[in-house]
Amino acid sequence: MPKSSKMGESHQKFAPSGAAILEAPQHPVLRNPQVHPAARNSLADKYQILFNESSFCCLVYDAQTLSIVAVNDTAVQHYGYSRQEFLKKTMYDICISEEESTSLISMKNSLLKPGTAGRSVHRKKDDTLIEVEIINQPVEFEGRKAMYAAVLDMTERRRAESELKESEERFRQLAENIQEVFWLSDLHATQTFYISPSYEHVWGRTCQSMYQDPKSFLEAIHPEDRPRVLAAVQNMTQGIHQEYRIIQPGGAIRWILARGFPIADKDGKAYRIAGIATDITDRKLAELEIKDREAQLEAFFDASPFGMVIMDQDLRYQKINEPLARMNGVSVREHIGRHIREVIPKVAPAVEGVFRKVLVTGRPLFNAEIRGETPRQPGVERVWMEYIFPFKNPGKINPDAVGAIVVEITDQKQLEEQLRQAQKTEALGHLAGSVAHDFNNILTVMKGYVDLILPRLRSKDQSHEDLLEVKRAVQQGTNLTHQLLAFSRKEVLQPKSLDLNRILKSMSNIIQHVIGENIELTCRLEPSLPLMQGDQGQVEQIVMNLVVNARDAMPGGGRLTIETSSRGPATHAQILLSVRDTGKGMEPATLAHLFEPFFTTKPQGRGTGLGLNTVNEIVRQMGGRIEVKSEVGQGTTLLIEFAGFAREVNPHVRRNHSPRSLTGTETILIAEDDSQIRPMLQRALSQKGYIALSAREGGQALAIFQHHPTRIDLIITDMNMPRMGGEELASAVNRTGYKSKILYMSGHTENIGLKKKFLKHGTAFIQKPFSINDLLTSVRQLLDS
Q: Pairing relation of β-strands 714-718 and 741-746?
C-alpha cells in the first residue's frame, strides 16, 4: 500500500475504464530530464500493479464530486459491487451517515494533507455494515484532482478485541468472585504470573506478597506438611496434586487441595504451571467427623452385648462381632468371607430365608425368630431373635448387603415355657381344689352313713363285709383327694408323730405287688429311727410315686432298694429316705427338668408328668428337700430329707388323748350348706345324746344362736357357705357377748395353717372327709378342753 511521504505531489493517470493508469509520483528519478522515457513508463507500470494487486481495498474518487472513479479487485470482491456498479457511486453511497459525508467533504478541503483519515463505517452491497480505517492520499486522475483511499476492514479485529475484552472481564469476575485460588507460575515457582484475589481470603496474605516472593505461600503451610509440599513444588513438570494444612495469621487452620497442570509451549515442552487451590476445610472436617462416627460405630459394633453381623448379597460374612461369633461357636476370623452354610449349616436354611426376603423386598424385618443348632452346642436347639435390615447405596433399588442384630432368647423361651406350664398348673390346681372340695363332701356323706350303719350289722353278715368294701373305697377316694389337694397346694396338713419304718413295713406287700416279680425289693431300715412329723397319707403317696417311677425305669427287671437312716443329734435329727433303682438312668438335660409339671420321660399315654412334681410339693410343704443322683446306665437314687425328733420327745405335735366316752348332753348347732351332710351330722350327734340343731348357712345359724332359749355349747360350721361363711359366723357370735366353742370343717381350704390358729382360740378344725368317730372325738375333746 502506498504510504505518505515527502516526495511531493503524486501524478497518477487512470484509464477511463476504471483500471488505473498510474503516473508515478514526482520521484527524483522521474524529474530528471536525462531519464529515458521508457524507464519512466516502467516505473508507472509498477505503481499500477501495486494498486491492482494490493490486499487493501483501494478506491480513487473525484476530489470535487466524491464520485468513485477507480477501484481495485480487492474492493470489488470485499464490497460485493461490480466494477461498473462502483463507478456509478459516490463515497456518499457507501458511507452510512451524513456525518460521514461531512467528514469526506472536510477531507476534500485538505487534499494536500495526506495521511490517515480516521475510522468510518461502510455499507456493503448486502447491507452488511463494516468498520473501516482509511488512509488517504491526494492523486491526479486524468488531469484532475482526486483522492486515493486505502481501506482496511476492521470488523473482525474489533470483534476479536471485543471478545477478548469480554473474556477478560469474565475471567476477572470468575477469579474475583469464586472461593478457589487461581495461580499461574513457572515450573519451579520462582515467578508468579497471576494469583487470584481469593488468595488473600484463604491464606490471609496479600497477593502482592506472592508476586514479590512466589514461594512465600509455603510459610503458611503447617510444619508437618511443609517438607512434602516443598518437594512437590521444586519440580512441577508433571503437575501437582497435594492436600495440606495452612495456618492463617490469626492461628486458624485450613485444609487446602492444590492441583497444578503443566502448560506446554509450541514444541510440547512444559514451561508454565496453571493451578487451582481449593479450601477443603469443611469437607475435611466432615470426613473427620465421619471417621469419628465410623470409629464410634466400630466400637459400638465390637462392644455391643448383642450379636451383630453384615453379609453381602451372596450371604457371605463381611463383618461380625465377638458376641455373635461366641453364639455360633466359631471365631470371628473363621467367619469372614465364608458363606453362612459353611459356618452354621444347621441354622443356615432358616437364616437364609429371612435374609433373602430382606434383600428382595428392601424392607427391614423385625423380631424374626430363628431356631437351630450351632457348633457351640451340637445337639442343643438354641433360639434367637433377629432384627434384619438392608444396606442400600444411593441411587440403587436393590440392597447391596444385609445386616442383623441378634439376641439369643433360649433362656427366655425356656422361662416362657415354664411360665405357661406354671399357669397351666395353677389352672389345674384351681380345678383340682374345686373337684377335691366337692368330692370331699360326697366322701363325707358316704363315710358318715357307713359309720352309722356298720354298728347295726353283725360282723359275719355279708352286708357288713360289703360296707367295709365301701369304706375301703371311700378311703381310696380320700387318698385321691389328698393327691389333688397336694397338687393344687391347698391341702391342709394333718401333722402327726409318724414312724417311717412302720409305714414302709405296712406298705411292703403293696410295693411288691406294684413292682412285679421281675424286680427284687430290698428294704434296709435303720433300727430306732427317730420319729418325724407329717401326714401319713402324704408320706405313703411319696413312697408310691417313687416306687412306680423306679419300676418304669426297669422294664426288663432289676433291683429296688429302699433305705432309711438318720443323722445329727436325736433332738434335731434328719431322717433320710432313699429309693434307688438299677434302671437306665438319666442324662443331665433330663435331670434339669425332672420336677417340672407335665415333664415326663415315659411314652405318650403312660405318664402325666405330675408324679414327681407332686412329690416335690409335698416334701416342700413338710419342710424337707429332695436330692437326685443319676447317670445313664447306672440307675437313679432319690434321697429325701425330713425333719425328725426323738421318740420320747415331740415338741411340734400335741398329744391327743382319746376321750373315754363320745357321748354328751350339750347343745350343738350345725351350720352346713350341703343338704346331705347336714342331716347325717345331726343324726350322728343325736344318737350320742347331744341336742343337735342345724342351719343351711351362717346367717340362719346366727339367728338360731341369738334366739335359742338355752345356751349353745358348740357350733360346728363349714368354712365355705353362701352369704356368710364359717369365720364370719364365728366373729358375729363373739360380738353377741356369748361365748361358744367352734369346730370348723371343710373340704376346700385355702388357709393351710388354720388348725394351729384355731386351736389357740378355743376352736378346732376337722378335714373332710372324716369318719363319725373322728367327728365325735373332735367334738368331745373340744367340749372338754
A: parallel
Q: Give the position of cell 466359631.
A: 330
Dist CA 114 CA 402 (whole Å): 91
Closest to 308 (Cα-Cα) out of 210, 183, 404, 434: 404
Cα gap 751→163, rounded to integer Å: 110
Query: Cα(748)–Cα(534) distance, rounded to whole angstroms?
Result: 20
pTM of the complete model beyond 0.90: no
480 or 28, higher pLDDT: 480
Cα 643 to Cα 495: distance, rounded to the nearest angstrom: 12
Q: Rounded to an integer, what distance in angstroms lies between the CA atom of residue 300 and that of residue 227? A: 38
Q: Is 632 helix (H, G, I), strand (E, B) or coil?
A: coil
Angle between helices 772-784 and 677-687 (to 10 degrees): 60
Cα separation of 743 and 173, whole Å?
113
Number of alpha carbons in the 13 Å side-chain half-sphere of residue 664: 22
C-alpha cell recorded at residue 377? 452346642
Other beta carbons within 10 Å of 728:
15
The secondary element (H helix, E strand) that includes residue 94 is helix 91-94
Rounded CA-CA distance 8/105 in Å is 23
Residue-by-residue DSSP string for 545-593: HHHHHHHHH-TT-EEEEEEEEEES-GGG-EEEEEEEE-S----HHHHTT
Q: What is the mean pLDDT of residues 4-33?
A: 42
Q: For the chain, how big is the Rg over CA atoms in Å?
A: 63
154/132 Cα distance (integer angstroms): 5
Q: Are 621 and 486 in contact (CB under 8 A)?
A: yes
Buried b (16+ CB within 10 A) or exposed e, 605-627: eebeebbbbbbbbbbebbebebe
Name the strands in the sheet holding 192-195, side by side, starting at the edge strand that comes first in the sequence: 192-195, 181-186, 270-279, 253-264, 240-247
- Per residue in 505-554, pLDDT tens? 888 887 888 888 899 999 999 998 888 888 787 888 888 888 988 898 89
Q: Tell me if 494 sits within 8 A of 767, measured CB to CB.
A: yes
> Which three cell numbers, joined as nine digits, stand for 327?
453364639
Per DSSP bridges, beta strands 382-391 and 496-498 are unpaired
Closest of 751, 677, 759 to residue 491, by C-alpha: 751
Return the higher-pLDDT residue of 689 and 537.
689
Q: How far is CA 767 from CA 483, 538, 782, in A?
A: 14, 14, 15
d(CA 125, CA 138): 26
Are 100 and 119 a contacting pair, CB within 8 Å? no
Phi, psi angles (nearest 5°) of residue 259: -130, 130
Residues in the chain: 785
Summarised one tens digit per residue, pLDDT across range 326-382 is 888 899 999 999 999 999 898 888 888 889 998 888 888 888 888 888 888 887 888
Q: Percent helix, strand, coil in the chain (nearest 5)? A: 40, 25, 35
Q: Which residue has the cell 373337684?
A: 435
Residue 735, all three cell numbers: 360380738
Give me the amino acid identity at 780. R
How confident is the model over 302-327, as pLDDT tens digits?
A: 888 888 899 998 999 989 899 888 88
